[in-house]
Specification:
The chain has a single domain, classed as Aldolase class I (TIM Barrel). Strand 7 (170-174), helix 6 (179-188) and strand 8 (192-195) form a beta-alpha-beta unit. The protein is globular and about 45 Å long. It contains 8 helices and 8 strands, in the order βαβαβαβαββαβαβαα. With 215 residues, the protein is of the alpha/beta class. It has helices at residues 16-25, 48-55, 75-81, 96-105, 152-164, 179-188, 197-200, 207-214; strands at 3-6, 30-36, 61-67, 85-88, 109-114, 132-136, 170-174, 192-195.
Length: 215
């Protein structure tokens, strides 16, 4: 099953409640929330307060992508705010294993996000511990970037490792997803697609059609 995760980074912040309700009603599985702190990436977006607000208006999975450094000390507040999945960049914290343990201890799903400059071999030791791997197909930090095609090989490699080692993690693709790039990612083994401007760049009455086009 292909799961669609609209990124609120591309939604209208002045109309965020209705933007999230609209994609919820259009049948998405996840709501993707990009958290940036101006340290790991050169931009600042939301904090745990946005997760808490969205939790009150949707029962869909809140897929929180932490682009922050350090990571560990902020985990509890995001989980208490209502995150269902927390993905983070291992190189952004001095003790990624400790971060994974804490997320699991608090009964939240845990993910590893792979920056375009990070290789799959660099995260191999975490793959048996996690629920989801986020392959970044843009440089994290800004919405609306173009898909980086040379990251596709990571999807295929992760899918091969997953099946050879009988692991259970989902493969999520984040960045530059549209109808064409979604098709390539699915063919290589991805099953969760983060889409921002492809969905939110259109009017609300188009959301359902655009979401289905990604499947």
């Amino acid at each position: 099953m292909i799961k669609i995760a609209p990124s609120i980074l591309s939604a209208s912040l002045l109309d965020l409640k209705n933007e999230v309700i609209s994609v919820d009603q259009a049948g998405v599985e996840y709501i993707h929330i990009d958290i940036m702190d101006g340290h790991y990436v050169p931009n600042i977006t939301f904090g745990s307060n946005i997760v808490k607000q969205l939790r009150s208006i949707t029962k869909k999975t809140l897929d929180v992508h932490l682009m922050i450094s350090p990571v560990y000390k902020f985990i509890e507040e995001f989980i208490h705010a209502g995150a269902d999945i927390i993905s983070f960049h291992p190189e952004a914290d001095p003790e990624p294993g400790k971060v994974i343990n804490l997320i699991q201890k608090l009964n939240c799903k845990v993910g590893i996000a792979i920056h375009p400059k990070v290789q799959v071999v660099d995260v191999l030791k975490y793959l048996h511990l996690i629920d989801i791997v986020v392959v970044m197909t843009v440089v994290p930090g800004f919405g609306g970037q173009k898909f980086i095609y040379d990251q596709i090989k990571k999807i295929a490699l992760l899918n091969e490792i997953k099946h050879n080692k009988k692991l259970m993690f989902e493969i999520e693709i984040d960045g530059g997803i549209n109808k064409e790039t979604a098709k390539i990612c699915k063919e290589k083994g991805a099953n969760v697609l983060v889409a921002g401007s492809y969905i939110y760049g259109s009017s609300k009455n188009e959301y359902k059609k655009l979401i289905e086009s990604l499947r």
